[in-house]
Amino acid sequence: xxxxxATLVFDxxxxxxxxxxxxxxxxxxxxxxxxxxxxxxAQVRTMVGDGSAMLVRQAFAATGAPLxxxxxxxxxxxxxxxxxxxxxxxxxxxxxxTETLAALTASGVRLGxxxxxxxxxxxxxxxxxxxxxxxxxxxxxxxxxxxxxxGRHVTWVLEQLGADPASPRAAMVGDNGNDVKAxxxxxxxVVAMSYGYPRMPVADLGADLVLDRFADLPAGLExxxxxxx
Length: 229
Ligand SMILES: O=C(O)COP(=O)(O)O
Ligand SMILES: [Mg+2]
Fold this sequence. Notes:
Layout (H helix, E strand, L loop, with lengths): L6 E4 L9 H14 L7 H5 L6 H11 L7 H17 L10 H10 L3 E5 L4 H10 L6 E5 L11 H10 L9 E5 L2 H10 L3 E4 L15 E3 L5 H12 L1
Parallel strand pairs: 1-2, 1-4, 2-3, 4-5, 5-6
Helix pairs in contact: 1-4, 3-4, 7-8
The structure holds 2-phosphoglycolic acid and magnesium ion.
Protein name: Phosphoglycolate phosphatase
GO cellular component, one term: cytosol
Keywords: Carbohydrate metabolism, Hydrolase, Magnesium, Metal-binding
């Protein structure tokens, strides 16, 4: 049976890895360094998805002391990114991620990654988790001049994977509104994973399909293919 999708583009945080505990741990190190009180993981979960600069801005604002301007953001951002890169505690993959991605690859699907997390941290995590060989293209939040929700972030990954723009048979898999908007911008359907960091009821994201478990993806893609073409 032909595969319903030849190319899949995945989001990282909240889709493949439960990174909120890592981001909370690292962010609290940065907040402490700048004499700010810590945040809870529940707070940080609402701040994931817009990239690291926005994360530190939102985090400082949540402590009651917003960073005044770009000049104030830069040293904080540098501290956070260095601390994240140096953090050696392993990240947690959601259940079924490795097996499902490996099965998709084995059946000939090309996989790409499109995250707003900076590329060097993204690549380090993919290597540590053993996922790097599965992805034919990786775009971080600083790889291009644009990032999600801009559809060109996703389009670039599709191009790197050699997806035919006239008939891409591609789909995006993510967890928040930026993923849905970027997929729409790139002109491809989108699946939302309900366990991530959606910042609104997942049913309101406007995804073509909502799944609760990563292992349900192959069956979900079959259903999605029947509705989008
Ligand atoms: O905000 C981030 O750093 C990244 O989030 P994403 O992997 O969900 O795009
Ligand atoms: Mg995400």
